[in-house]
Amino acid sequence: MAKTLIVCEKPTAAAKIATALAEKKPKKGELNGVPYYEFERDGKQMVVVPALGHLFTLKNLKPMREYPVYDIDWVPTYKVDRKAKRTEVFVEAIKELAKDATDYISACDYDIEGSVIGYNVLRYLCGPEAVKRAKRMKFSTLTTQDLQRAYEQLMSRLDFELVDAGVARHVLDWYWGMNTSKALSAAVEAAGERFAKLSAGRVQTPALKILVEREREIKAFKPEPFWVLSLLLKLDGVEVVAEHATPRFFDKAEADRALAACKGRPAKVSAIQTRQYRRLPPVPFDLGALQSEAYRCFGYTPMRTQQIAQVLYQEALISYPRTSSQKLPPTIGYDKILKQLGGISKQYKKFADELLSQPELVPNEGKKTDPAHPSIYPTGERPGKLTGPQQRLYDLIVRRFFSVFGKPALVEGVKVELNVGGQPFFIHGRRVLDDGWLKYYGPYGAVEEIILPQLRERQELAIKEVKFEEKETQPPARYNPASIVKELESRNLGTKSTRAAILQNIYERGYIFGSQITVTDLGIEVVDSLLKYCPEIASEELTAEFEREMEEIQEGKRDKEEVIAKARTELDKILSKFKQHQLEIGRQLAESYRITRLKQRTLGKCSKCGGDLRIIISRATRKRFAGCSNYPKCTNSFPLPQVGMIVSLDRTCEQCGAPMIQVSRIGMRPYRMCLDPKCLSKAEWGKKRAVGDNARKIEEE
């Protein structure tokens, strides 16, 4: 009997694909702990086996003692990354199951990364013939209906355009990242440091440059004083603030004259203007918008949002999240999804019934499209047990889906003009006349109402207080994780899938810190030295140009080898120039590298001797702990979490006085703790923790 091997991206996807395609319940097997599924369909033996994300990665074929290096190839990930050791059994299992296969299907996620994962599995574990014979499933959800349709409408070949674009991106990122990082590290080492772990990248460095530019604007900013004049009125027992028509007085004498004119005078209503306006429903979520909204509503970082959304997708609760589309095609079945959502909760049922009673369902769509996937939407499948963060993100996506079909909200705005001793003031009121889509979006779209009492022209209002405040202009706002990801998108730097990971890498390299992003001295020096000697490494224009060319590969308009060759030529020029100035660059970076690393390692003061408590790696166990800088005279030490990036919070615990730290792990909620494991603040740890929620009563950063 002919045997078809179906390769997918993750074990959860394998179970769903097998269940959807099998005519009877599929038989589950295991090879060295790797699950796979067997069943018969259309007279063929079918075997579904998962990968575990990328089973192969690029690696240099000889040691990187010098740079540039272009001699690279794909190798099993477990041979490069110790953290990927678990992938070895998946490699062996797929090899074994592929031995007698006659046909092949890639059922990995339909995007660049998924296409590369499937292609590499087929190429290196199943053989060149498998690549030629393989077909492709294309789906946007892991629901039974969508998977069955994808199988019945199999693409006759692999999506080689996406594969080529993905391979080109991986190669360019390796060339750029590994070679420029090696160049920076070599420069610092040449200037006297024994070892330096620095990094640069094709997108990472331009992204860091944007953050440095904002840092410079903030540091160069010179505050300017101004004065604000306002009135505190009491209308029907409610305090209302009236603002002066000049929101900021930059001339103190002019401000004083306005203040003097108001003293002892009543406020007279000179005019009342009322207008009604519509607030249109929001557009469907693309990944960037979901990341921004999740940060606004919950404080989730873009990386965390992306990973939670991926879990919801794998559970078949939402469509594929890594999309740039703001479109909802009718083919997804609006009414069917609404009916299914209505069966999940009473609140959802109320919303679904209201929308289904409309004459027609027409979503308010945005302009952005994606050739591979529609916007993010709930599938209607009933959720199982979700963690708190998963439930919150799922509810946000569901309510957004309801909202795009809602009617515009009708809001009434009132502007009351006041005259106080010849000085003009304004009161603004606002109330919702028809909440329209706002009732579906609930707490995520709440409008603050300011209800004013009935007023009439020439009416005199008693002034409770005339407020006169001196303030200063503020520097530009710092980027936060969501706003910098949005900025990268607007400049066409990186992709929807990679921007959050790039930002995470900049954090881990010690170039930036904080939720209101601050650039370290090292981050500033890296950008400054490159701009001085090799500005091309930090060039947004060059990066965006390569992004466009890789999009053209994906569209079948450009050959990947041509783009890779061009990148090599460009990088050769850049690195040749870098070598000419290696020592100068190294000297510029060495001191800031040493200071930044020392700051990163220092967690606070030792309570026993006043020394510094620093992160130390044990030579014997290779585990990290906090030890005193005055060792061996002082042996004070504390255990540390072994996973995650640790930063000092520059304050001490209110209960025990030990230094406070924050621990951040990729895709997980950061948590704060003091160093002392015996502190009373930790007495309740572990007793109330929800399964899958990595929070310990912590604040999101």
How would you describe this protein?
With 701 residues, this protein is an alpha+beta fold. It folds into 5 domains: 3-158, Rossmann fold; 168-220 and 480-593, Topoisomerase I, domain 2; 225-281 and 409-472, Topoisomerase I, domain 3; 287-404, Topoisomerase I, domain 4 (Orthogonal Bundle), CATH 1.10.290; 603-682, no CATH class. It has 20 helices and 24 strands. The chain has a 7-stranded antiparallel beta sheet with strand order 14-11-12-13-10-9-15, covered by helices on one side. A 6-stranded mixed beta sheet has the order 2-3-4-1-7-8, sandwiched between helices. α6 crosses α20. The protein is globular, with a radius of gyration of 30 Å.
Tally of discrete structural domains: 5
Strand residue percentage:
15-25%
- Overall, the morphology is globular
Contiguous uncertain segments of 5+ residues: 688-701
Continuous helix count? 20
CATH topology of the largest domain: Topoisomerase I, domain 2
